[in-house]
Amino acid sequence: MITYLIVQALLRTLVFFFSLYRKSFGRLIFQAKFMNRKQTSASMVWNYLVRKGLENGFKKVSELREYTRKSKSILYPPLQSPILGCVSKMEKVDALRGSFWFAMKNCERPYYCDTHNSHPSLDHENPKVMMFIHGGGHVSGGALGMEAQAMLFAVRDYNMRIKNSLAPPCSHVLSVEHRLLADPDEYSTMDRNLLTNSVEEQIEDCLQCLKWFVYEKHIHPRGIVLVGNSSGANLIVNMILLKLINSESTNGRNSSNPNGDGKDPSQNELWPVHSVALFSTSCDISRTIIHQDFVKENFIVAIPTNLQEMFEKCLQPEDKMRYSVLKNLIKMEKIDKQLYHKLFQCKWVVNYSKHEELTPENDYFVNLLKQHVDQEDKLKIITEDYQMHCYSIGYSLVPEARRGVQQSLEACIP
Fold first, then answer.
1. DSSP string covering 330-369, please?
2. Total number of domains constituting the chain
3. Residue 375's domain spans which residues?
4. Recorded GO terms, molecular function (predicted)?
């Protein structure tokens, strides 16, 4: 708690003095790269500090992985703090590779429990539960990292704001711990409980978490909100495309499933969920649809070259091609004309910055969705200008992040 209070005081003091400097020497600031008059001072400071922090350099994938998996809070209070915390109970789920199950603070209404595995007409006021998947380029991050902390406090604020309304709260959050891609140099010695060399196994870990909701907690899929950041958003979309609604594999081979629907029989009970919310989705890891030259000069590039090279090194060439969200959407639509009808059985919320390195990918993704959505309330697009990739992590400091995340929760939870 002391560390958090000190960091918050320092950051807010820095923003205050920067604001004074900005008023006096604004022209000099706006000549600097990655700064624009539309940004708040807090956003400028945040972008600068994040970029400088990442530029310090990680020599190995293991160093980056260890750094991002630290759960000590510096931007947010301890999760279970009696005064400033956001959760009343947290439980480590060993069966899900150490994922964490959180009961949100001051949220008395329990989620709907479908103990008889029936399909009732769910009341829109019933609390929802969230399955959150962190980002990290498939190689880093963890269930207790800053991304998860930011989302938990955002859910707390959402619950507080709608407390006296008819809107449903989010009563519980499962922060997913999935295996991370290892450096190829680590394959012979890697801990296979923590690491993998396959995106397929990451998706399988996420699928097991969704099954845990339905079969262990007896939560109806219509009460589940799927939320992901960056590579976590990629895993969510690929899980939906390849595991939940796929009628044929994307390489054209027919499923061997005896039911003839291309699904494991249990998958029919997992979809549709209530909604899907994606933040800064990594849409084209194949780099075959969106090329580097799509990135414009005024984009705010958060990920330095050395980290990009780490991510590329850990992704197998075949995985880059197989798990490109854009490639899969284009290919699957040719096979299944009902693809988008199946996707829009639930609400979709897409949040990203209009000036991040993944903006072209997300623009392309959004255009595909817009071309096929037939009900306005099934798709919500939320964008902010001049923010970094995964700007939602700065929820505690940056007004643009708070606004964007809260708009997303207001769209995906009710």
1. HHHHHH-TTHHHHHTTSEEEEEEETTBTTHHHHHHHHHHH
2. 1
3. 2-117+125-412
4. hydrolase activity
Backbone angles phi, psi at 302, to 5 degrees: -90, -30
Whether residue 212 contacts residue 95, with contact meaning beta carbons closer than 8 Å, is answered with yes
Q: At what angle do helices 359-372 and 325-335 cross, to 10 degrees?
A: 20
Contact by Cβ (8 Å): 241, 247: no
Tens of pLDDT along 244-286?
997 444 333 333 343 444 455 456 789 999 999 999 999 999 9
Residue 211 and residue 233: Cα distance in Å, rounded? Answer: 18
**Residue 117 pLDDT > 60:** no
Q: In whole angstroms, what is the distance from residue 84 CA to residue 30 CA? A: 36
Secondary structure of residue 195 in the 3-state scheme: strand
The answer to whether 142 and 69 are in contact (CB under 8 A) is yes
Question: Could you tell me how far CA 1 lies from the centroid of its own chain?
Answer: 26
Torsions phi, psi for 30 (to 5 deg): -75, -10
CATH label of the domain that carries residue 329: 3.40.50.1820
Please check the confidence at residue 173 and state whether its pLDDT lies above 60: yes
